[in-house]
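Pasting two entries for a bug report.
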Amino acid sequence: MSDVVLPGELDVVPANEASWDDIRAVFGTTDYPGRCQCRRYKVLDHVWNTSTPEERAAGLREQSGCDDPGARSTTGLVGYLDGEPVGWAAVEPRTAYPRLLRTRVPWTGRRGEDKADDGVWAVTCLLTRRGFRRRGITYGLARATVPYARAHGARALEAYPMLTTPGVEITWGELHVGAHQVFAEAGFREVSRPTLRRAVMRIDF
């Protein structure tokens, strides 16, 4: 598979409208997504360090509200290509990520924003299913987070992507936060650089 997937070719739905089988297919079981199950920022270190991949998967299933289109909340978006589940974007109020709130990344060089402000949302993970990677699927996922967050009451949306260098490979585990270019093309603007390899990007609605 080598064809680039344009953002408009991806059908993206809230995770509660997807099935658990579809979400499980996206995450898999063998590499970083299968171990993390999108729980790294959802729990504090002591919980993360003592949990198993199976326990993390159970947490993902519960937080996604999958198989329940009427669920009052969910934790992400699922992308489909020609009916096949191929991607995941974690997007929620920033306050839904306890570990993120304890890192310095969102706050470096900022203007004293309230950590308890539910109106600021965050994209903490962009995931492409194994077998569909390197086709540009994250571009469509990132773009879909913008209208979704806005429609659900966000007054701002942040992302914390890696800065990539042509010819220098970044392991998938590091790149789960997405690449700078992906969010730039989705309309995010850079507001700070907390480290040499990480940016904070944001859209204010």
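Entry 2 (this is the one that rendered wrong in the viewer):
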Amino acid sequence: MRTSRLEAFSDGVLAIIITIMVLELKVPEGHELSDLIHTTGVGLLTYLLSFVYVGIYWNNHHHMFHLVRQIRGGVLWANLALLFCLSLFPFSTAWVDDSGFEQTPVVIYGLNLLGAAIAYFVLQTVIIRQQGPESPLRRAIGSDIKGKVSPAFYVVGILSALVIDPSGHLGVGIALACFVSVAILWVVPDRRIDRVICEHGTLG
């Protein structure tokens, strides 16, 4: 099976996720900049963080499937699992925003990020196994240091929110710093797949 339908479906779902998130933003009641900051300021920040994450997954997903020619059922289900985790972003983002960064919503947001990271790793692993020993995707990702470091940051963030200063905001602040750090880590362009595409051409 070719990858075109899977990619088109995934692109559509990610576009809808972004649309739902922006619709969750509250419109200021007044017409001054202070009204925007008071009513929508926090929401804009949480939206920006989640938008960046969705963009990162779309970018990596797009690049990954340049190295995939054929797919089977396992890839379809793994891709659906990833889309399921990403589709929860509007919910977890809105909860963090509405709660004012309370502990439980931030933990759930971190679990959402962790779930998406695991789902992406599973999708990547299924593709590599289907491609076999000479998998071009395996060659491209190499040791995948960023892919291994990211879940560790999520876990540290989640545990910080749960354990450090549970009645205050120190642990939550550390958690948010971990989540933002991972986003910054992945925003930096990753040239591994680009190099393999340049060497061997697009497979998809």
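Dev reply: Rendering is fixed now. As a check, the viewer should reflect this: The radius of gyration is 18 Å.
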